[in-house]
Amino acid sequence: MSSLFHLFPSTIHPMVVHFTIAIVFLAGLAGIVGLMWRADGFFPKLYMLMLFLAILATIAAGVAGVISESYLKTIPNGVGHILSTHKFYGELTGVSLVISFALQAWRWWNRKPAWSVSGLSLLFSIIAVILVSMAGHLGGTMVYDHGLGVS
Fold first, then answer.
1. How many domains does the chain have?
2. Short name of one Pfam family for this protein (predicted)?
3. Does position 82 have pLDDT exceeding 80, yes or no?
């Protein structure tokens, strides 16, 4: 299986994860605007679409992370804990996005009111923004402070 992983470059995770971060942030922004500006259904619909794309992007980032990790020969002392926390925050980001999407889909399905943003869904979306930020900070710490994956 690792030989299949090595069809991708070792830098696949940083190439994919930045798109994920942007989509998660844009989903949160669309949700905030959609909650405040109720003139039409554009932003709630955009929020729903962005949440779906954020889930797909988070899955892609996780898979890319596994691929990039498979290239590591060793993990320096003190970095193993950071790496496992980084992965945990990434997983929690995905869970938060799925919950947010499910709550928003439930609201849409029940048409309460049609095409509006669920406050609870937005809360989980904001939690996802915080979690992806924490995961990104830890990823940057591993690369820039410890040189993980660059040597």
1. 1
2. DUF2231
3. yes
